[in-house]
């Protein structure tokens, strides 16, 4: 079984391998290119239906800042505390399942369920 810590480490392995290969071969690759390469590994090779947010958080974030990102356009900026105009809340959703993503067929089903839940929440927000 994969613990939460193991799961979080799993998310970083693809990025770590890419950075190590680039370093060993003296290559310069932009963070946005690495985000796309890691997405190709996870979606194409591993068959996961996840997006680019995890890779983006690893490669684009900076200490003491929030990373504002549009995952469709890949536009992003770092936001420092004085720039916050409104209070904000952060939602962290953890499934609690402890299985390797590649051997658990339910992972891609949960992705679809999260997408449906997001649609419901957006509808609710528009009502109020």
TrEMBL record:
GO biological processes: galactose metabolic process
GO molecular function term, any single one: ATP binding
Matching SUPFAM superfamilies: Ribosomal protein S5 domain 2-like (SSF54211)
ATP-binding recorded as keyword: yes
Species assigned in the record: Eutrema salsugineum
Cleaved signal peptide residues: 1-16
InterPro entries: Ribosomal_Su5_D2-typ_SF, Ribsml_uS5_D2-typ_fold_subgr
Gene3D superfamilies (alphabetical): 3.30.230.10
Protein name (Swiss-Prot/TrEMBL): Uncharacterized protein
GO cellular component assignments: cytosol
The entry's keywords: ATP-binding, Nucleotide-binding, Signal
